[in-house]
Amino acid sequence: MLSNKNQSRNKNAKFLVERSQTMYNIGMEKLHIPVLLSEVIASLSPKKGESYLDLTAGYGGHAKEILDATQDYKDSVLVDRDEFAISHLKSEFEGATIMHTDFYSAVLQLFECGKTFDMILADFGVSSPQLDMPERGFSFKSPAPLDMRMDQRQKLTASDIVNHYSERELAEIFIRYGEEKPGRAKMLAREIVHHRPVKDTKELADIIIAKSKYSKVHPATRIFQAIRIVVNDELAEIEKTLPLLPKLLKKDGRLAIITFHSLEDRLVKDYFKEASSHGEESELTTITKKPIVAGNQELVINPRARSAKLRVAARN
């Protein structure tokens, strides 16, 4: 029989799931606007009967438009590691294969099964619903648990990092993944350790704000980014995944990748350059010499698109 404590925890978890799903149902268009949608469609140029792999399907904004064009659900695969996204994808994309896992694991499984696709899309970064659900802990706009897990089945959380990593480890994370200057990174790491235990996202943000000068960009942005990257092992996932993607593409298949900060974009840029630099033996041909960014019209509707960059390549 469950203890009162466990019963309370289960009720709370159920409430959070139901609340998040309700938020979605109230107005999906407010929760998630797919970035660079028209540019992605133009770059992938989906045709009827073509197969599609979406490695970060989220709430299906890109997938809907592409599958509306291809009408090939049975040969298409939608991947995400967020349970809320998976729940929505299963209800909206009947006939498509839905995979609840990280994109690297998905790529390995698909490769082992001998699957290939006409189009692959990877939209890296945090989705709008994740940012807009305070209980997920991705945002510093309101008090929330220090969570930041994209896959809520994993054990490591932001709280583990903030409250248990050493001062030196924190500074290294802020420098490497937040691109903070070493002096500032060490100072903020010292302050965080001094204020432990840090209870929630607001307290963490307040510690950072107290040691920061005025800036147009919130001073906690880089620190939250750095912690989130480590919690979800984001850059390592990208680095391991990129070399495998050509093997999942059919001849003349198209690969589109959206990134949201310089660390991600640099990995994609360097990989595309290397994969297309071997002449006739190159696996890929880079289509976009420079990344495609959002236009003014999209930025008015979706300010979060301001940091998005789209790079596209084709299988030789």
Q: How would you explain this protein's 3D organization?
A:
- The chain is of the alpha/beta class.
- It has two domains: 29-129 and 237-315, Rossmann fold (3-Layer(aba) Sandwich), CATH 3.40.50; 139-235, Putative methyltransferase TM0872, insert domain (DNA polymerase, domain 1), CATH 1.10.150.170.
- The protein has helices at 4-26, 28-31, 37-44, 61-70, 83-92, 103-112, 128-132, 158-164, 167-178, 182-194, 201-210, 221-232, 234-241, 262-275, 296-301; strands spanning 52-54, 77-80, 97-100, 117-123, 249-259, 284-286, 292-293, 309-315.
- Strands 1, 2, 3, 4, 5, 6, 7 and 8 form an eight-stranded mixed β-sheet that branches.
- α9 packs across α10 (182-194) and α9 crosses α12 (221-232).
- The protein is globular, with a radius of gyration of 20 Å.
- Mean pLDDT is 90; it is low at 5-30.
Jot down its keywords:
single chain, 316 residues, alpha/beta, Rossmann fold, DNA polymerase, domain 1, 2 domains, eight-stranded mixed beta sheet, 13% strand
What topology emerges from the helices and strands here?
Layout: H1 4-26, H2 28-31, H3 37-44, E1 52-54, H4 61-70, E2 77-80, H5 83-92, E3 97-100, H6 103-112, E4 117-123, H7 128-132, H8 158-164, H9 167-178, H10 182-194, H11 201-210, H12 221-232, H13 234-241, E5 249-259, H14 262-275, E6 284-286, E7 292-293, H15 296-301, E8 309-315
Parallel strand pairs: 1-2, 1-4, 2-3, 4-5
Antiparallel strand pairs: 5-8, 6-8, 7-8
Helix pairs in contact: 9-10, 9-12
